[in-house]
Amino acid sequence: MGGIGRNLASKAAALGMSIIYHNRRKLSAEEERGARYVGFEGLLSESDVVSLNLPLNEKTKGMIGKREFGKMKKGAVVVNTARGGVMDEGALVEALAQGQISSCGLDVYENEPEIHPGLIDNPKVMLLPHMGTWTEETQTEMELWNIGNVRSALETGRLKSPVAEQADMSDE
Question: Is 6 a catalytic residue?
Fold first, then answer.
């Protein structure tokens, strides 16, 4: 669970939800804050709500499709605010029609800016533009962070916020 996942988990826990997660690695107890690590199959089969908070890369592209929807609890809710390409929208439309997935919320789309036609007028679907960072304050903070990250890379060869593929450039 990265920063976004941990932030979401703290909000969900405040609403009384039990938190399970799957990640490239199990977090320390301090980072977990009461969440329980499970394998990917366990995440799918045990979750009432599956929230996707992961990067899009070769390993994650299309990782949620027909097979994965079929392994989810009947009536599960799916939320994708990560990257559209991690989920097969055609398989999602099918899972919604069959009642396997009860509803979903998306602010990213598999083939942006296009949205699968089976999602547009579906009353089980909440569609939003990808706008989680569209405030002046957040944009300014992101700019400052990025400038600092570039400065750190140039001056020290280390990044302030490396992704897994850049772990060897981390200060940690």
Answer: no
CB–CB of 87/65 below 8 Å?
yes
Among 83, 89, 110, 116, the one annotated catalytic: 83
**8 phi, psi to nearest 5 deg:** -65, -40
**104 alpha-carbon distance from chain centroid:** 13
DSSP symbol at 16: T
Residue 27 Ramachandran class (φ > 0 left, ψ -120 to 50 alpha, else beta):
beta
Kind and range of the H or E element at 106?
Answer: strand 101-106
**pTM recorded for the entire structure:** 0.78
Catalytic annotation present for 137: no
Q: Half-sphere exposure (CA, 13 Å, Cβ side) for 18?
A: 8
Selected catalytic residue, list 31, 41, 112, 141: 112
Q: What is the pLDDT along the chain (172 residues), one digit of tens a residue?
A: 777 888 888 999 999 999 999 988 898 998 888 999 999 999 999 999 999 998 899 999 999 999 999 999 999 999 998 899 999 999 999 999 999 999 999 999 999 889 999 999 999 999 998 776 777 888 888 899 999 999 999 999 988 877 766 666 665 5
Number of residues assigned to the chain: 172
In degrees rounded to 5, what are phi and psi of residue 103? -165, 165
